[in-house]
Amino acid sequence: LSDSDLRGSDLSGSNLSGSNLSGSNLSGSDLVFHLPSVDPRGYSAHGCCTSGQWLLHAGCHVFTADAAREHWGDPEYPDRERGDDYLEITVPYFEKQVAARMASAG
């Protein structure tokens, strides 16, 4: 899906696990959204609803919000600054977007 134009697409029922969405235009899609990522390695991050579960994709990782906090909050995480950036920026934005999408779905 890299560089795909998915504006206005209905992705309900789609399994996007393992999909490379880099460069894709997802505007208007309500099941996939870009996340702010400050990863110096250039990894992109996005939120995605797969099989009714909202997941945070960052680089090669796929997390629930709780699992993401556990991963990046681990005292042994190798880059504390990067982990804190994910915890302070990416995860809260993900949770806010999921809450808004769930509220609008009724």
Layout of secondary structure:
Blueprint: E1 32-35, E2 45-50, E3 53-58, E4 61-63, H1 65-73, H2 80-105
Helix pairs in contact: 1-2
Characterization of this structure:
This protein is of the alpha+beta class. The protein has one domain. It has two helices and four strands, in the order E-E-E-E-H-H. The chain has helices at residues 65-73, 80-105, and strands at 32-35, 45-50, 53-58, 61-63. The protein has a four-stranded antiparallel sheet. The longest helix is centred in the last third of the chain and has 26 residues, at 80-105. Residues 1-25 are annotated as: Disordered.
Tally of DSSP helical segments: 2
Radius of gyration: 14 Å
The count of β-strands is 4
Instruction: Report mean pLDDT, rounded to a whole number.
Output: 85
| Multimeric organization | single chain
Task: Tell me what portion of residues adopts beta-strand conformation.
Answer: 15-25%
Biggest sheet overview: 4 strands, antiparallel
Strand order of the largest sheet: 1-2-3-4
Shape: globular
SSE order:
EEEEHH
**Count of domain modules:** 1
Question: Residue share in helices?
Answer: 25-40%
Q: Which structural class should the secondary elements be placed in?
A: alpha+beta
